[in-house]
Amino acid sequence: MSCLEQLTRLGLNGRQTNVYIALLQLGTASAIEIAKATRYKHPTVYDVLDVLKERRLVAESFSGGRKLFTAEDPENLLEEENRRRQALDAVLPDLKALYDQQAHRPRVRFYQGEEAYRAINRQLLNVKSGEYFYFGSVQEMFQFCTPRDHEEYVKERVRRGIRSYAIRVRSREVDWDYMRPGEQNLRQVRYLPRNIFEDVASLYLFDDTVAVMSALKENYSMSIESRELFTLLKTIWNCMWETAEE
Predict the structure, then answer these.
(1) pTM recorded for the entire structure
(2) 115-130: b (≥16 Cβ within 10 Å) or e
């Protein structure tokens, strides 16, 4: 990832990043010189400089009646990040308390398109219990993503030590190493005793959450945080697991 992209992830927008980089290269410069280097209009440069001064990334000085600007030490970005982290640490307990007050109410999240696959995977890679339970067919799974994308997801899941227990449809399997059961993939698989010939959505159960992912025509995913719904569907899943074939 480039320096420009990294600064953007640290909270600087494109113009702020370009002006700061230009000043690092110029050393000390006037707004006119910065405008020439960045090809931004003068009012835009002044607006950006005001923001960078507030963030302690630019210093202002005068020489011969000219207003000059100098890039401050990039270490100030680290100091700013530390201050933000300290502020977050201070307020997080109160925010968490407010969040937990609503624990008895179901929380529903709905996603469509490409975000549907990524959203559920983010939750699966952060399960607190270290395991999740799946029902569905493998072939439908790859309607959302490429085999390479899913392979990377499986590697990351294994790296984090998260186990998968899957009830799958035997007729819709794929013969790929990373989809096979076994300790190397932290996965245990059983199969429905009867094949399903219709397309089905995928069901995931984890951390009092029920997630459904449909990569078919409807192309969506949905997660519901509900202890009662989780308990109901996990009971049904357990019954299916007992009758499924190894």
Answers:
(1) 0.58
(2) ebbebbbebbeebeee
